[in-house]
Amino acid sequence: MAEEKKIPRGIPSSESLYFPAHNAEEFKPFQDSNESLTRNLWRMDDVVNVIFSKKFQPTYYEIAVKFLNTLSAKPHMDGADIGKFVSGNKVSKATFYNRVLPRLRRVGMIKVERETIIALESKRKFRPMRISLSKTFGNCFYKIGDSWIAIVDEARTKK
Fold it and tell me: How far apart, in whole angstroms, are the C-alpha atoms of residue 36 and residue 137?
């Protein structure tokens, strides 16, 4: 008898985002009572809270906020800069490289580029990492939000 494939229960935490109720204290105000956007901007820690919940993943949250604030002060960071960040902030290398960095990349907050370099004398290949901030995260949410507003506006004009 063929073994049945198990369907996982729920969404894996590595694939999910944290969205408390839109009127919760954790969410900074983003609209007025007429559903018009307010002009205030969220800070880095407010945005990161959607990726790594301060309430449920405080360690990842703190590391991500520190890293993104450090990265935003420079155009990019290379492997040596990242190593200095990890050791200088006493961050676990495993946590940073296996949890925080991949998630920031997956949601589109950072862009990781690698360049292949071949050493002339030993013919060994090196692929140094270069990380920079990415607009992909914002563009994705902008597209989702803009599309939803269009759907709501169309529904309201039908009345």
Answer: 22
